[in-house]
C-alpha cells in the first residue's frame, strides 16, 4: 500500500454509540461476524454507495466542514471513499456493502453537523419533484379540460387533452415572454392552440388559427364564406370547404345527433379539419367584415363556427376617437362641391376592427363619372311616316363611326369560356339580324342593328370597362332581342334589366305630339305635305341625313342606293335666300317625280322640316323655295312652344287645296335607357388619420406624422406653427397637432376630389376647427371589436385527446 494512503489501522476507532436508531448497526467493541451474502439487493447497495461517496466528497471539499474534522478521520473517510471506488468496479457486493456502512458510520459520528436531516432531505426531494413538474407543465406538456362545445366536432365538452408547450418556444412562467422562437416552428394556419383570453387573461381558451400576422381575412355576416389574402399576396382566395353529407352533428352534451346542422371539411394550405354550422342559428346579415392581422397577433375561430365565442365576436366598451367626427360627408359636399354618392370607409388598417381606441382612420370616396363604364340603349320604333328605318340606321352608323359591317358570328370571335350550347343559343337568336354596324374608340364600343322584322333600329353603346370584348356586347344584344320578342311594347329599360347601376330612362312615347307634326293638303304627289321634328332625339344632323337618305341623296342616300341598286339623285343646298326672311335654317332642295322637296334644318333651334310641294301648288322651284322660307320663319315659335307646331303650315299656304286628315300624325317614338358609368376609387378620395394622447408625446407624434408626408414638407402657416404641408402627384397632405385636445391629425386629399390647394386647405381648416372640441370626435363607451390574440398569450399547441377512453390518444387535427 502506498505510504500516502492511510490504512484502517491508522484510524482510531469511533466512540461506542447507542445500539438503537441509525447507529444500531455500529458496535465496534463486539463486531458481528461478516456476512457471506449481502443483506440488500446489489442495485440498492451500488446506488447507496455512490450516494455516500458523493456526500463524503462534498463535505471534504468545503473548507469550513473539513477543518472541523480531525485529520486522521479525514484520512479514514478518504480511504473509505477510495475503497468504494475500487469495489464499485468489481463484483464483491458484500465487501462494498460493508465499506459503505463503515463510511456511513464515520460520517454520522464525525460529520453529522454537515449532513442533511431527514426532514430537509425530504423537503428538497419534494421541491425537486415540484420543480420538475412545473418545468414539464410550463415548457413541455400541460393537461387541459375542454369546458364547452365551441370546438365541436373536433373537441367535445369534457374532453381532456394534452397541450404541447414546447412547440412554439419556451414561455417564461407568469409572463408573456417567449424565448427561442427562432429555434421552433411558427404558428401555422389551421393549428389548434390554447391561449389566455385577451379580454380576461385569467381564462384559457382553445380555438383554431385562421389568419397569422400580415394576413387579411374577409368574412360574410353568416361566417359561411371566408376569403383569405395571405401575407405578401395581393388577391383573396376562398377558404376551401367540402360538405360531408354522411357526417352527423352531435349535441354538445350528449352523443345524440341533432338536426339543422351541416358538417364540412375545411382546408387551409396543408391543414384539413372538420367544422360545422348550426343552420338554426343562420342569420341574414348581408355585411362583410375585413380583418388585417397586425404583427405578433393571430385571428382564431372555433370549429363550431356560428356557435363559437371567438375573434369575430370579441368586443369591449371604451371611449374611442373617431376620425369621421373631424370631417363629414356634408363638409365634403359643402367645400369640394362634389355631387353624387360619397362612401365612408372606416377603420385603421383597412379593417372594420381597430385594437387601439386612441387611433382611427376614415377614408371618404366620392362617386365620379366614368365613360368606360357606361351602357346605353336607344330604340327607334318610328321616326315619322315615310322615314325609312334603314336610313335611320345608316345615318346613325355614319354619325358615330360604326362603319364596319359584320354578321352576328363576328361578335363572338373574341369570346372566352363560351360553351358550345350557349354559343349555339346566341347564334340562333342573333343570326337573324343580318348585317350589324359596329365601331369603337378608346372609350367605348358601338353597335347599330335592326329588329328581325327590320322595323326597329337599336343603338347599343357600351364602355370598354363594362364590355371588355365584343362578345360581351353581343350577349347584351341577344338580351335586347329576346326581350323585344317576348313583348314588342317593352321599353328600353325593360330590355336591359340585368345590368348593374341606376338606370336613367327617357321614353318619348308619351310626348310624340310635341316632337313631330304632319300636315297634308290635297293628294299625295301633287298636293302639299309638311313633316316637322322638334328637338329630335337622334340629333338634328342624324335625322337630316336620314331624311335625305330616304330620298336617295347625301352620304346615307349614296350608301342605300349602292346597297339596293337605286339610281343616284342630286340635291342642291340653297344658302342665298332672301335676307328679309331672317331665317336661321339651311335649305336643301331636290326634284320629286311631280314637284319639289325642300329640307329645312335649323341647328340653332333644333328644328327640322320637310316640305313636299306638288305641281298643283308649286308651279316652279321658286314657289317651293318661297314657301319654305315662310315656314323657316315660323320654326323659332314652334321650338319655344310645342303647341305652335301645326302653325308651321297653314291653310293659307295651301291655297285652294283642302286639308287631308293624317292618321297617326304623332308617330315619332324614340326610347332610351342609360346606365351611367359611375365608380368609386381612390382618385376621388380623402383620408384622415388621428391619434389622441400619443404615448411618446404630442411633439414626437407630430414628427412621425410629418415624416410620413410625401415630398418635402413645409410649414403650413395658415394652420398655425404646429402644422406641415406637402403636395405631389398623389395630392395634397397636411399634418398638424391640436394642443387643446392632445390630438395629431394627418389629412391626405387626392387630386380628383381636391382640384386645388385652396380646397385642400379649406378641408384641413374644417378638420382643425372640429378637432379643438372632443365632443366632435370622442365617442363615449363605444362597443368595439377586439379580434386578435397577442402572440405572447399563446400557451401551446393542442395535440392529443387522452380522455375519454373511447378516443384515447386521438391526434387533434
Q: Proportion of β residues?
A: 25-35%
- CATH superfamily of the largest domain, called what? Umud Fragment, subunit A
**Can you tell me the overall shape?**
elongated
What is the CATH level 1 assignment of the largest domain?
Answer: Mainly Beta
The CATH architecture of the largest domain = Ribbon
Radius of gyration from the alpha-carbon trace, in angstroms: 48 Å
Distinct helical segment count: 20
Question: How would you characterize this protein structure?
Answer:
- The structure is a single chain.
- Strand 13 and strand 14 (271-278) form a beta hairpin.
- The strands form nine sheets. Strands 1, 2, 5, 6, 16, 40, 41 and 42 form an eight-stranded antiparallel β-sheet that branches. A seven-stranded antiparallel β-sheet has the order 18-19-34-38-37-36-35, with helices on both faces. The chain has a seven-stranded antiparallel β-sheet with strand order 21-22-23-24-20-33-25, with helices on both faces.
- The chain is elongated and about 165 Å long.
- With 813 residues, it is an alpha+beta fold.
- The model is unreliable at 1-30, 348-353 and 576-582 (pLDDT under 50).
- The chain contains 20 helices and 42 strands.
- The protein folds into five domains: 8-115, no CATH class; 143-309 and 789-800, Umud Fragment, subunit A, CATH 2.10.109; 317-365 and 685-785, 3-Layer(aba) Sandwich (Protein Transport Mog1p, Chain A), CATH 3.40.1000; 371-509, no CATH class; 523-657, no CATH class.
Amino acid at each position: 500500500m502506498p505510504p500516502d494512503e492511510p490504512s484502517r489501522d491508522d484510524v482510531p476507532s469511533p466512540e461506542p454509540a447507542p445500539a438503537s436508531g441509525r447507529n444500531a448497526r455500529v458496535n465496534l467493541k463486539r463486531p458481528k461476524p461478516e456476512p457471506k451474502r449481502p443483506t440488500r439487493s446489489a442495485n440498492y447497495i451500488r446506488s447507496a454507495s455512490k450516494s455516500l461517496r458523493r456526500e463524503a466528497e462534498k463535505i471534504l471539499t468545503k473548507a469550513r466542514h473539513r477543518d472541523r474534522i480531525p485529520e486522521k478521520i479525514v484520512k479514514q473517510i478518504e480511504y473509505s471513499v477510495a475503497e468504494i471506488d475500487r469495489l464499485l468496479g468489481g463484483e464483491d457486493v458484500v465487501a462494498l456493502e460493508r465499506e459503505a456502512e463503515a463510511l456511513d458510520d464515520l460520517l454520522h459520528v464525525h460529520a453529522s453537523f454537515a449532513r442533511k436531516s431527514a426532514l430537509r432531505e425530504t423537503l428538497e426531494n419534494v421541491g425537486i419533484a415540484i420543480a420538475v413538474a412545473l418545468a414539464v407543465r410550463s415548457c413541455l406538456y400541460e393537461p387541459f379540460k375542454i369546458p364547452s362545445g365551441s370546438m365541436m366536432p373536433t373537441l367535445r365538452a369534457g374532453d381532456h387533452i394534452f397541450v404541447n408547450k414546447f412547440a412554439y418556444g419556451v414561455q417564461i412562467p407568469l409572463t408573456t415572454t417567449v424565448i427561442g422562437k427562432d429555434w421552433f416552428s411558427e404558428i401555422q394556419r389551421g393549428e389548434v392552440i390554447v391561449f389566455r383570453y385577451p379580454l380576461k387573461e385569467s381564462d384559457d381558451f382553445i380555438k383554431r388559427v385562421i389568419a397569422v400576422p400580415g394576413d387579411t381575412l374577409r368574412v360574410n355576416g353568416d361566417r359561411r364564406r371566408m376569403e383569405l389574402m395571405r401575407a405578401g399576396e395581393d388577391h383573396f382566395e376562398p377558404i376551401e370547404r367540402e360538405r360531408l353529407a354522411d357526417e352527423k352533428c352531435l349535441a354538445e352534451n350528449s352523443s345524440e345527433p341533432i338536426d339543422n346542422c351541416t358538417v364540412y371539411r375545411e382546408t387551409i394550405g396543408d391543414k384539413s379539419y372538420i367544422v360545422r354550422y348550426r343552420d338554426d342559428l343562420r342569420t341574414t346579415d348581408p355585411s362583410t367584415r375585413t380583418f388585417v392581422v397586425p404583427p405578433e397577433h393571430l385571428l382564431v375561430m372555433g370549429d363550431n363556427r356560428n356557435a363559437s365565442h371567438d375573434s369575430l365576436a370579441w368586443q369591449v366598451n371604451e371611449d374611442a376617437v373617431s376620425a369621421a367626427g373631424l370631417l363629414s360627408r356634408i363638409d365634403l359636399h359643402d367645400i369640394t362641391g362634389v355631387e353624387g354618392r360619397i362612401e365612408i370607409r372606416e377603420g385603421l388598417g383597412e379593417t372594420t376592427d381597430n385594437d387601439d381606441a386612441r387611433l382611427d382612420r376614415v377614408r371618404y370616396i366620392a362617386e365620379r363619372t366614368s365613360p368606360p363604364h357606361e351602357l346605353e340603349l336607344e330604340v327607334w320604333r318610328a321616326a315619322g311616316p315615310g322615314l325609312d328605318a334603314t336610313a335611320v340606321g345608316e345615318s346613325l352608323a355614319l354619325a358615330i363611326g360604326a362603319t364596319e359591317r359584320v354578321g352576328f358570328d363576328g361578335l363572338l370571335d373574341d369570346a372566352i369560356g363560351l360553351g358550345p350550347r350557349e354559343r349555339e343559343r346566341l347564334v340562333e337568336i342573333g343570326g337573324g339580324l343580318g348585317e350589324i354596324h359596329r365601331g369603337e374608340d378608346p372609350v367605348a364600343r358601338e353597335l347599330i342593328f335592326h329588329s328581325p322584322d327590320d322595323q326597329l333600329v337599336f343603338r347599343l353603346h357600351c364602355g370598354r370597362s363594362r364590355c371588355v370584348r365584343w362578345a360581351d356586347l353581343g350577349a347584351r344584344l341577344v338580351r335586347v332581342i329576346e326581350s323585344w320578342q317576348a313583348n314588342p311594347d317593352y321599353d328600353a329599360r325593360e330590355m336591359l334589366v340585368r345590368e348593374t347601376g341606376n338606370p336613367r330612362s327617357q321614353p318619348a312615347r308619351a310626348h310624340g305630339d310635341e316632337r313631330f307634326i304632319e300636315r297634308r293638303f290635297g293628294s299625295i304627289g301633287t298636293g302639299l305635305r309638311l313633316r316637322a321634328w322638334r328637338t329630335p332625339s337622334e340629333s338634328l344632323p342624324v335625322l337630316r341625313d336620314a331624311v335625305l337618305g330616304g330620298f336617295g341623296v347625301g352620304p346615307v342616300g349614296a350608301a342605300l342606293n349602292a346597297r339596293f341598286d337605286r339610281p343616284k339623285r342630286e340635291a342642291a343646298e340653297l344658302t342665298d335666300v332672301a335676307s328679309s326672311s331672317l331665317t336661321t335654317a339651311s335649305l336643301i332642295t331636290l326634284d320629286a317625280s311631280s314637284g319639289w322637296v325642300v329640307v329645312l334644318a335649323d341647328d340653332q333651334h333644333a328644328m327640322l322640316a320637310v316640305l313636299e310641294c306638288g305641281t298643283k301648288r308649286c308651279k316652279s322651284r321658286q314657289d317651293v323655295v318661297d314657301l319654305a322660307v315662310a315656314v323657316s320663319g315660323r320654326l323659332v315659335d314652334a321650338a319655344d312652344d310645342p303647341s305652335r307646331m301645326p302653325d308651321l303650315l297653314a291653310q293659307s299656304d295651301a291655297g285652294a287645296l283642302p286639308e287631308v286628315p293624317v292618321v297617326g300624325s304623332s308617330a315619332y317614338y324614340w326610347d332610351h335607357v342609360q346606365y351611367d358609368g359611375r365608380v368609386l376609387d381612390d382618385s376621388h378620395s380623402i383620408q384622415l388619420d388621428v391619434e389622441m394622447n400619443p404615448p411618446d408625446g404630442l411633439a414626437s407624434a407630430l414628427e412621425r406624422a410629418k415624416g410620413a408626408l410625401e415630398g418635402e414638407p413645409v410649414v403650413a402657416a395658415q394652420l398655425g406653427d404646429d402644422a406641415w404641408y406637402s403636395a405631389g402627384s398623389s395630392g395634397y397632405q397636411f399634418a398638424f397637432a391640436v394642443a387643446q385636445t392632445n390630438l395629431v391629425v394627418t389629412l391626405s386629399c387626392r387630386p380628383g376630389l381636391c382640384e386645388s390647394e385652396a380646397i385642400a386647405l379649406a378641408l384641413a381648416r374644417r378638420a382643425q376647427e372640429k378637432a379643438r372640441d372632443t365632443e366632435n370626435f370622442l365617442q363615449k363607451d363605444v362597443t368595439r371589436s377586439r379580434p386578435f390574440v397577442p402572440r405572447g398569450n399563446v400557451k401551446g399547441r393542442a395535440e392529443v385527446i387522452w380522455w375519454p377512453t373511447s378516443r384515447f390518444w386521438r391526434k387533434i387535427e
